[in-house]
Amino acid sequence: MRILLVEDDPLLGDGLRAGLRQHGFQVDWVRDGDAGQRELRSGVYAAAVLDLGLPLLDGMDVLARVRAAGLATPVLVLTARDGVPDRVRGLDAGADDYVVKPVDLEELAARLRALVRRAHGQPQELLRALDVSLDPAARVVCLADQPVALSTREFDLLQALMLNAGRVLSREQLEQHLYSWGHEVDSNAVEVHIHHLRRKLRAALIVTVRGVGYTVPRAPQGLGQP
């Protein structure tokens, strides 16, 4: 899952990037509001973590501009501004969550997963398709309730498809989900990962829509409820 981190403090930003990567996120990090606005407008991120006290463009202005442009990417504000008026202003400006520094990384990762899940209309943490289940928090995939070992890229690709169950994703869109800055992408990387997933799980799990991309079937309503 690829997210954008907008934080100007080098020590905090480095710690957040490293910690979120340990929780399975692909993290791109920028250090000013102008760059944050520009990257958010690209629409390639599952979510963003946004500081407010940023150089060049304040985080509140970043929020206002991307929401005015119609961008629906979930944004979690992470800031030292802890007053109730600040929280109200941030949420009214379009933040999907508002967290005061310092924050526990476990909590931050859980909040990001929840934001992404809600943005994709997934009410449950556990994702299901056919007899395959995926737990984003534990990063475990099961086939008929039996764990299946996947590589990091295979897990991330399957998660992207299952979050978007019933929707066709192009190869380019899947590459954007899988790779943050600084990673070279082989021309057939997505196809190779999909081949491995079909072999390890179910061939019918990932459907090829010729000339368009790939999709997984949407789980019947009620499946996966506790």
Automatic annotation (TrEMBL):
User: Which keywords has UniProt assigned to this entry?
Assistant: Cytoplasm, DNA-binding, Phosphoprotein, Transcription, Transcription regulation, Two-component regulatory system
What CDD domains does the entry give? REC_OmpR_PmrA-like, trans_reg_C
Q: Which GO terms describe its molecular function?
A: phosphorelay response regulator activity; transcription cis-regulatory region binding
Instruction: Provide the GO biological process annotations.
Output: regulation of DNA-templated transcription
PROSITE patterns per the UniProt record, alphabetical: OMPR_PHOB (PS51755), RESPONSE_REGULATORY (PS50110)
SUPFAM superfamilies cross-referenced by the UniProt entry: CheY-like
* GO cellular component terms attached to this protein's record: cytosol; protein-DNA complex
- Residue intervals of the OmpR/PhoB-type domain: 124-218
Pfam families cross-referenced by the UniProt entry: Response_reg, Trans_reg_C
- Location of this chain's protein in the cell: Cytoplasm
The DNA-binding region ranges are 124-218
Q: Do you know which InterPro entries this protein is assigned to?
A: CheY-like_superfamily, OmpR/PhoB-type_DNA-bd, Sig_transdc_resp-reg_receiver, WalR-like, WH-like_DNA-bd_sf
- Transmembrane regions listed in the UniProt entry: none
Tell me which residues bear 4-aspartylphosphate.
D51
Is Cell cycle one of the keywords?
no
Residues covered by the Response regulatory domain: 2-116
Top-level division of the source organism's lineage: Bacteria
Q: Which PANTHER family match?
A: REGULATOR OF RPOS, TRANSCRIPTIONAL REGULATORY PROTEIN QSEB
| Name of the protein in its database record | Response regulator
State the organism named in the record. Ideonella livida
